[in-house]
Write a structure and sequence with these properties.
single chain; Rossmann fold; binds adenosine-5'-triphosphate
Length: 239
Amino acid sequence: MSAAPGRSQASSHRSPEGEGILVSTPSLLVQNLSKRYGDTPVFSHVSLRVEPGEFVAIVGESGVGKSSLLNCLAGLDDWNEGTITHHGVDLGALSETQRAHWRREQLGFVFQAFHVLPHLDVAQNVGLPLLLLKRPDPARVGQMLEAVGLGGLGERLPAQLSGGQLQRVAIARALVHRPGLLLADEPTGNLDPGTAQQVMDVLQQQAQESGAAVILVTHSDAAAARAHRVLRLTASGCF
Ligand SMILES: Nc1ncnc2c1ncn2[C@@H]1O[C@H](COP(=O)(O)OP(=O)(O)OP(=O)(O)O)[C@@H](O)[C@H]1O
């Protein structure tokens, strides 16, 4: 069992071999990852290195396993072979409790279907990750609401918001605790093209400001075009 996951580590460190040489620590390192559902292979031999602050888009045909891969990267689902390392923490070596702790500290996740809690108001939704970490911070929540263009709407219930506004709530919630890694699964899939563009502007800008590495799964060429790199997932890997 590896050490319990901690707070975000520095993105680079001194090489033990060569004084003065800076060696980058990837935000995420995926090596030779394979997943099956029962006997049915989903993806095989996926390797991927994402640097801190990097924005990577993953595209691929429907059913090729993009959401399954993202769920593995989040430690929400198990894989059959290979390793996933986040800032040196081997996700496969963590217990369920340790993974849950790692997710709370280090991960933001934005889903296509928003997944905001209907009975909590907007500010409570955004503040939830901080509450779960026992670090409530109304000022930070207010700052995130302003940053995503929802200043003044903190007391509204989700039912009183548009789809684009709901996704901005989800983005604020995903980044409020300054995670090292933001995973986004088709975040604009339910939005019209204009709203999708605004939501991607907010996602990209806020992730950049917080220094989070972003992995975006999308069918949208416009969304993928914003990424530093676009990787295509196929049954035999990520290219
Ligand atoms: N829990 C599960 N049990 C069994 N098979 C599953 C499960 N979840 C997904 N699958 C199957 O695994 C394959 C990959 O699904 P996944 O949702 O990861 O693909 P995707 O590339 O994200 O698809 P899309 O682009 O349509 O969202 C599909 O054939 C799907 O039916």
